[in-house]
Amino acid sequence: MLHWWAPRWRGSIVQVAPMTHPHTPPSRTLMRSNAVIVGLCLVACHQGGLAQARPICRGPEPIELATRNHPKAENWAALGGWFGEQHQFTCAIPAFRAALRIEPGSASLHYYLGLTLNSAGQFNAALPELRRSVELDPNQLQPRLLLGVVLNRIGRSAESQEAWEAALLVDPTSVIALDWLAKARISSGQPEAAVDLLSAAPPDEELTLDLAVAYSQSHLFDKAAETLNSALAKAPGDLRLSAALATVYVQAHRYQDATNLLRKALDLHPHDDPTELLYLRLLVLQDDDADARPIARRLLATHPDSFDALYLSGILENDAQEYAAASAHLKAAVAINPSHYDTRYNLGIALSHLQQYDAAREQLEKAVALAPNEAEAHFHLAQVLRALGQTAQSQAQLKVFQEKQQATIKLALAQTKASQAGQALNSGNVAQAVALYREAIDARPQDPILQYDLALALNSIKDPTPEDFLQQRAALEEAIQLKPGFAAAENQLGYVAAHAGDTAAAEQHFVNALAAVPRFAEASNNLGTLLGQEGRDSEAEVRFRSAVSANPRYIRAWVNLAATLASESHFPEARAAIESALKIDPQDPDALRLRQMLASAPGNPSSSQGLAVTSPVSSSQDQH
Q1: Fewer CB within 10 Å, N- or C-terminus of the chain?
Q2: In whole angstroms, how far apart are CA 237 and each of 35, 231, 275?
């Protein structure tokens, strides 16, 4: 038996381009690749790199001569840049410090020193240099990006996110800042805030994958699939997008869709190992041994030390009653990853068929410890205990199995109905989706995600009746009861309450959403609109500022902020807010209309009449 794994997002190894002359305007020196976000670190930061002998600091003779005869900042900076290109960071650092003693107010020199210190692994020393660079020139993007990376490296995640938010205020189109900030929010358990950030992001494959992961972690699998399908339509056969979409399909129990997708990807890219391994997992998951076995043999032959190839081969060998081969492969897999449930479970089965009951018991007990809610391990452990003559313990495990099995059956039914409901909703059949979500809830009434999904389906009704709103409200209240701190449900419940005219309840729900996820831009905007409609402009302004800080690409919040500032007669700030909105979308009609109205309001409070914030928005609406 195989259990599909939860998706794990891949962050970005941040690299530094070759050091250039500090007075040359830096281009995009911070580059991305696909791995975990670990910050800026070059060869010198690799394990053991800093333990090497201190190099002799001698640069090219013309540059050395210039520093002696003309000890200007630019000459010292050129020397530091040359050392940086050679990865001689311990030599580059004093050169940049010498340049700063001559020009202590140079933002670029502080940045280059911070960059070099970071590349040398001296993160705490890099921090004040980068902060000083930002203070001296707040409009430069690179120092803010690197500041966030350094803060992340020393474990100050919240501050690193603030640095990347500030970077987006400088450049709302920065894909690097959007990518790193989204990944940080996802890893810190705030997928709603990541969805907020990326819902209107510029086209980019990495951002698409980030958004899909954020949707998946929010259990919005249909949204994740829609996002990835849209990207694949523009890049057919893209392997990363195909793998991500296949994983989402499996999470939504759309196994045939996942199989078809991966088969198509392999037709375009035959024997691509990562894709073929994903395909093998799916075949094993569906007990399609005939197609799986030749792939497993090839992968095991080419990757004999691969954990996945070993344990998937072991499962297939168990199915073929080749227990000795299965035992050998599964033991090798356990040695690589001793905390993997499926491997321990299947090894226990192989050993029990080989009548090695004590060893089988050990493996099955470890499997149960790793995943107590998996019914099958309890069943096979009961069989092994009975073979060992331990009847009472066997009966106890059998009773646990029966209880877990009932829960597993209900879970499978609920997942199937929810998957069907999502597909019905995507095809526009809202009534069928609502009915299927109700059937899913009947099978699993304690699932808060199902209650939330039902509420969103009810919210999709074209002409909702008061009863539809009442049912939506009841579903959301049940979701929050089952999962306190469910920010998305609190936000949606605030929208429903506002629609019903219950402003006091709406305000409380928006506050609750922000208490759970403080960087939830949509909830901040919704609370701001509610406060603005009640004439509480100063409080509304705070919320709109929080919204655009959390998501600098949130046009609706920028427009609302501008309208609020204008109502407070803060016309220059209002115009600046509108320009921020138009910087993101020059054709946004609300922003253009407000800009025109503000143009005739040089300082006349009466000119702000007619400016108003928008209404609170539902979680199913576009944030743009």
Answers
A1: C
A2: 21, 10, 11
Output the six-digit token pair for 10. 């891949």
96 with 77: CB under 8 angstroms?
yes
Closest CA to 560 of 578, 585, 573, 572: 578
Are 281 and 312 in contact by the 8 Å Cβ rule? The answer is yes
Final residue of a domain: which of 125, 154, 183?
154
* Greatest mean pLDDT among 22-26, 239-243, 404-408: 239-243
Report the side by side order of strands in the sheet with 39-40: 30-31, 13-16, 39-40
pTM: 0.75
What's the CA gap between 318 and 326, in Å, rounded? 6
pLDDT tens profile 164-190: 999 998 998 899 999 999 999 999 888
145 band by pLDDT with thresholds 50, 70 and 90: very high
Mean pLDDT of 427-444: 93
Among candidate residues 297, 290, 295, the one with its CA nearest the CA of residue 279: 295
Structure tokens at 520: 């939830």
**Contact status, residue 196 vs residue 623, Cβ threshold 8 Å:** yes
Structural domain containing residue 573: 519-624
The CATH number of the domain where 527 resides is what? 1.25.40.10
Whose tokens are 């909703």? That residue is 425
Axis-axis angle for helices 107-119, 89-102 (nearest 10): 160
If you search the block for the tokens 């009861």, which residue do you land on?
481
Domain count for the chain: 2
Tokens of 312: 């998937």
Give bridge partners of residue 216 from the DSSP assignment: none
The whole-number average pLDDT for the span 469-492 is 93
